[in-house]
Design brief:
By secondary structure, the chain is α/β, with parallel strands linked by helices. It is built from nine helices and eight strands. The strands form two sheets. A five-stranded parallel β-sheet has the order 4-5-6-7-8, with helices on one face. A three-stranded parallel β-sheet has the order 1-2-3. Strand 7, helix 7 and strand 8 form a beta-alpha-beta unit. Bound molecules: zinc ion (ZN) (2 copies). The site of one zinc ion (ZN) has 4 residues, from loops.
């Protein structure tokens, strides 16, 4: 586990107060740099996720300008901010942002946040269509399950005991095989209230030849950037080594990978 954690050079799934994060972009960036990362990818939500203040196309374009200024200030430090999004995978499998804008982003995480109870056939078709979209790089928290763990009062809707949510149902063999075929990565989500994919699915994914992974915090506050060990421990248990983990690559190699499919 320590070996895997030491190999990680960045985090590809982080929210700011541009959407439903608690902390400003600059604070998240400073904290990621202080953790020893080489880069952080900002992945705020897409428009349809209105409860999370998802970014419209014009707001996302403005965020890209903000990132450019932050990067200008970071010049020479060796740390950089990469642009990105956590884009909703809509029920028909299309992505909830303008394709031209998605194409401009460095890293695109695609996640299912709505209609998690679609039947297995429809959910599988939805995920396969998203994975075939050349703009998608990483499939976020694939089952959508929620564990009854309190992470931060600001993000549990103020409830002392958050509700459990069952994993959605899909053909995991087909989804993982498609991800490998398209050269995409499956996220190992480090949030204590997600830990997604569950262990049985993570073991299944680990057995798929050529399939890559991204160990991401999905941090919504500065302190949550330190959650990577949760995912590293689970990846190590499943037998996943750093050579299969996209955020163990340098920023340049990561960008070459996202530009390659
Ligand atoms: Zn999400
Ligand atoms: Zn997220």
């Amino acid at each position: 586990m320590e070996e895997l954690r030491a190999a990680l050079r960045g985090d590809c799934h982080v929210h700011t107060d541009w959407s439903d994060g608690a902390d400003p972009l600059e604070a998240m960036v400073a904290a990621a740099a202080a953790l020893g990362h080489d880069y952080v990818v900002l992945t705020d939500h897409s428009p349809r996720l209105t409860i999370a203040n998802g970014l419209s196309a014009p707001r996302l374009a403005r965020q890209l300008d903000a990132v450019a200024s932050v990067n200008a200030a970071l010049a020479g430090t060796g740390f950089r901010v990469l642009t990105g999004i956590e884009v909703d995978i809509l029920p028909d499998g299309t992505l909830d942002q303008e394709p031209g804008l998605l194409k401009r982003l460095d890293v695109v995480v695609g996640s299912v946040h709505s209609e998690l109870k679609l039947d297995r056939t429809k959910m599988t078709r939805r995920m396969l269509r998203a994975l075939a979209d050349p703009n998608l790089d990483i499939l976020g928290h694939c089952t959508g399950r929620k564990l009854p763990v309190v992470t931060d009062a600001r993000h549990s809707g103020g409830r002392a005991t958050p509700r459990r949510r069952a994993p959605s149902s899909f053909d995991a063999d087909a989804v993982f095989a498609a991800a490998a075929d398209h050269g995409k990565a499956i996220e190992i989500n480090c949030r204590p209230d997600r830990l997604d994919p569950p262990s049985n699915l993570l073991r299944k994914a680990a057995r798929v030849d050529g399939l890559r992974f991204a160990i991401n915090t999905d941090a919504h506050a500065v302190a949550q950037l330190d959650w990577l060990p949760n995912g590293c421990a689970r990846a190590a248990t499943a037998g996943i080594t750093a050579d299969r983990v996209v955020n163990a690559m340098s920023a340049d190699d990561l960008l070459a990978w996202t530009g390659s499919h």
